[in-house]
What we know:
CATH superfamily of the largest domain: Bira Bifunctional Protein, Domain 2
Radius of gyration: 18 Å
CATH topology of the largest domain: BirA Bifunctional Protein, domain 2
Number of strands: 12
Amino acid sequence: MLDPVAIRAGLASEAMLPVTIHCYDQVGSTMDVARTAIQSLPPAALPVLVVAEEQTAGRGRLGRRWFAPPGSALLFSLGLYPPPIATTTPTALIWMAAVALIEAIERETPLRVGLKWPNDVLVQTATGWAKTAGILLEGGWDKNRLVWAIIGCGVNISAAPDPEVTRYPATALAIAAATPIDRLQFLQTLLQRYDYWFRQLQAGDSEFLWQTWRNRLLTLGQVVQITTVTDIICGEAIDVDRNGSLIVRDGSGALRWIESGDVGIIGDHASDV
């Protein structure tokens, strides 16, 4: 089991995050535990990292369940007060989490890594791209400003979910890389990259982070089908804007700005996703 002392030992003493670390054998959802921690801890104790060996009610985007055998994944949530720049552009926290995760995977494995908009992390396998991690952002708002946020993350380390319960191909890092992955070392590397990008956001610099996130999007150049709450949109994903919205040219030639949705690749213009 991961523990706070071991996690802390691999982080720089001057790291801005996490300040507080909680580790559990089993929780319903690390997101829920982190939310309680934000409400109960003093500001000086944040950001707070909540790590669990197992979740009984883990969830991903759009209310989907997240399944992982005990000890087979990194399941964690980071609760924090957002940097000023993220209070009006909360997707910057998604960019931070996604880019940090890509960098950690590339440092700890030989795998090629990319992103499926908006927040799925994929690795290339012998049969194509497969999801190995997902990111979830929740927050509290006051007068259209984000006042607190929780970044949830699930990374398949040694086991992948049953294909019958996933919408798209999935794998685990150890399976795709054909080598064991040290969960503690991987988490420490990931937190180091979180800390780096968090500092950039605290300094008010989001441009390089956004460009880095954008450049890793495998979705761009693809013909996609996007299911939103109210619509199904088909077209070519041509770009993302500075708020993180996906810009799609539909069949009529009109440009559509998509803030959130479930993306499926139905054609190939620029990559081999």
